[in-house]
Design goal:
Creatine Amidinohydrolase, 18 strands, 430 residues, alpha+beta, Creatine Amidinohydrolase, Chain A, domain 1, 3-stranded antiparallel sheet, globular, 6-stranded mixed sheet
């Protein structure tokens, strides 16, 4: 791994939070991700399943975590199963975790090779009444591929039909949404790496460069700072491309007068950051660009103030919509008649701002976290309003990542990343 070692106390705390909510005489199992094939002997780079990483810190394929707080053998209350390494694997792939290293990473004392899993699991299931399955119930999931977790669940239901089944996801949604200080520090590192990338490209952008060249500059800076690279597929959209919300081709040339919307950020230690900045290709905002940009920035600043304990996510978005409506009227994009005659299910402002303002951040860019209950301190949310005007060939979005505080305004993890018009123009014209 490129990142520095993480103190295993983080994962010990995370497991304690999870097991505290398990039913009596129950087992929870978490599987690592598969390595997914492309074709022939090619595979995609391995990405660890975030739940097993959250609970163990194990960042290696073919790993299984088993939690059984009521195990009769105290040594089997928590077990990590890892792939046994050998000289052949060490030569071709690099050495895998030894049992001692697995303990150091996870804080789990009982480590077995993966080949021992079936025998030990069967023995422990004779003591258990309930098995927790780790299904993906994220509100934005649209997975069609059968995962390693899916295969385990299918096999387990056939092998142990008399056991009760329970879901890990509700517990994970609750505990993963509220971040530990160590997690916030890792996210801050990801944001700091993103800051370095953004400052690098401010001196690079000019009319005539290509979107993919900007992408390459970011990637260079991210990787040289111990990141694997982008936390999600980067969006670098010049001019009218910014009106495609998930534009990822990044293959067009930047023209004089364009605004360039860049929605991209670094990961660090599997934790995401999520930034959007929009800058003028020639280093100077036109009067109209300045107007629209300032409106988006005002909405972002007002929306940020509302991210406090007790806020309800759905109500928050309605309030942001009211602020955006006012700004769009000020820009001449809406008038009072548009608002009076709007469809309550699709308010007038949605013509120019059609997506949500905030989502949970963490191990996933769209992270786990409760959305129907009041917000809590140490939840981390994005704030990302935008105004998109196809008729003017312009889309502007601004986005920061903020930590909800027990008292006062949220703490902005991207507070050092330039966002004010004057600072951006100064840095682009050095």
């Amino acid at each position: 791994m490129k990142y520095f070692p993480i103190d295993s106390n983080l994962f010990i705390k995370n497991r304690k939070k999870f097991t505290a909510q398990m039913k009596p005489k129950s087992i929870a199992v978490f599987n690592s991700n598969d390595i997914y094939p492309i074709s022939a002997d090619s595979t995609m780079p391995f990405e660890q399943a975030r739940d097993i990483f959250y609970l163990s810190g194990a960042d290696q394929e073919e790993t299984i975590l088993l939690l059984f707080p009521d195990a009769l053998d105290k040594k089997k209350k928590e077990i990590l199963f890892v792939r046994e390494t050998n000289d052949h694997i060490a030569v071709w792939e690099g050495a895998k975790l030894t049992k001692e290293q697995a303990t150091a990473v996870s804080g789990i004392e009982t480590i077995y090779w993966l080949t021992d899993f079936d025998k030990i699991f069967f023995d422990l299931m004779t003591e258990a009444d309930t098995i927790y399955f780790n299904t993906n119930e994220h509100y934005r999931q649209a997975v069609e591929t059968q995962t390693r977790e899916d295969r385990f669940i299918e096999k387990c239901k056939k092998q142990f039909p008399a056991h009760q089944w329970a879901k890990s996801n509700p517990i994970l949604q609750q505990i993963r949404g509220v971040k530990e200080p160590e997690e916030i520090a890792l996210m801050q590192t990801a944001c700091d790496i993103t800051d370095k990338g953004f400052r690098r490209i401010l001196g690079f952008i000019r009319p005539g460069v290509w979107e993919y060249e900007i992408e390459a500059e970011f990637l260079h800076e991210f990787v040289r700072n111990r990141s694997k690279g982008f936390a999600y597929t980067p969006i670098i959209a010049a001019g009218a491309n910014a009106n495609v919300l998930h534009y990822v081709e990044n293959n067009q040339q930047v023209k004089n007068g364009d605004m360039i919307l860049m929605d991209l950020a670094a990961e660090y230690a599997n934790y995401s950051s999520d930034m959007t900045r929009t800058v003028p290709a020639n280093g100077r905002f036109s009067d109209r660009q300045r107007q629209v940009y300032s409106a988006v920035l005002r909405v972002k600043n007002e929306a940020t103030k509302m991210l406090v304990p007790g806020t309800i996510w759905a109500e928050y978005h309605k309030e942001v919509g009211k602020i955006m409506t006012s700004e769009l009227i000020g820009l001449g994009l809406l008038d009072k008649a548009d608002v009076q005659n709007e469809d309550p299910e699709w308010p007038a402002y949605k013509k120019y701002f059609m997506h949500g303002t905030s989502h949970h951040m963490g191990l996933n860019t769209h992270d786990y976290g409760e959305l129907k209950t009041p917000m809590k301190a140490n939840m981390v949310f994005t704030v990302e309003p935008g105004i998109y005007i196809p008729a003017e060939g312009m889309g502007i979005r601004l986005e920061d990542d903020v930590v909800i505080q027990e008292k006062g305004e949220p703490f902005n993890l991207m507070r050092n990343i330039p966002i004010e018009i004057e600072e951006i123009e100064e840095l682009m014209n050095k």
